[in-house]
From TrEMBL:
This is Transposase. One of its GO terms (molecular function) is nucleic acid binding. Gene3D superfamilies: Ribonuclease H-like superfamily/Ribonuclease H (3.30.420.10). Coiled coil: none annotated. PROSITE patterns: INTEGRASE. InterPro entries: Integrase_cat-core, RNaseH-like_sf, RNaseH_sf, Transposase_IS3/IS150/IS904. Residues 16-179 form the Integrase catalytic domain. One of its GO terms (biological process) is DNA integration.
Length: 179
């Protein structure tokens, strides 16, 4: 079961702006992947650019916790951006909010129950599962095997998967243009 913290109120700074002029919005989310693991799941946390659709950081864990999100944030190589999420308990934790302050990131959250407010992250998870993971028997795969598969998919997604929204460029080539 997902834990949502609906008591905290953060402004939605993104307001469904999926094609911003500036590359300053990073969407994030955690998704469950059925696995042969302690909790029957592996948990994938991603950080994706709204502008370039590039997966800029990702972590896979056997626990869905604050440390998973902190590790994802630590993988980002940027400062001064909007960090947009849903109301998952991790994103409103003091540890995550403090870490975001150290890199001058502004916290933004979509409206409760509106998954389309976090479309970029949700779209990526849909691609990952629909194009790839659903073809594999992840429930019979060990954590390390799933990690390897996700790593290969993200490499392909960032550097080879052309997207119509990017004028048939890959996220990596769109990212190079915006650098």
């Amino acid at each position: 079961m997902e834990n949502k913290n609906t008591d905290v109120k953060f402004e939605d700074l993104v307001r469904r702006n999926f094609n911003p002029e500036e590359d300053n919005i990073i969407a994030t989310d955690v998704s469950y992947i059925p696995a042969d693991a302690a909790e029957n799941f592996a948990y994938l946390s991603i950080a994706i650019s709204h502008k370039t659709k590039m997966i800029e950081s990702w972590k896979l864990s056997q626990s869905n916790n604050v440390q998973l999100v902190l590790d994802t944030i630590d993988g980002l190589k940027r400062k001064n951006f909007i960090f947009h999420s849903d109301h998952g308990f991790q994103y409103s934790s003091y540890k995550v909010l403090d870490r975001l302050k150290t890199i001058n990131a502004k916290t933004s959250m979509g409206r409760v129950g509106n998954s389309l407010d976090n479309r970029e992250a949700e779209y990526f998870f849909g691609c990952l599962k629909g194009e790839y993971l659903n073809q594999l028997a992840t429930t019979k795969m060990k954590f390390d095997e799933i990690y390897k598969c996700i790593s290969e998919y993200i490499e392909w997604y960032n550097f080879k998967r052309k997207q119509k929204v990017l004028n048939w460029k890959t996220p990596a080539s769109a990212s190079a243009i915006n650098s």
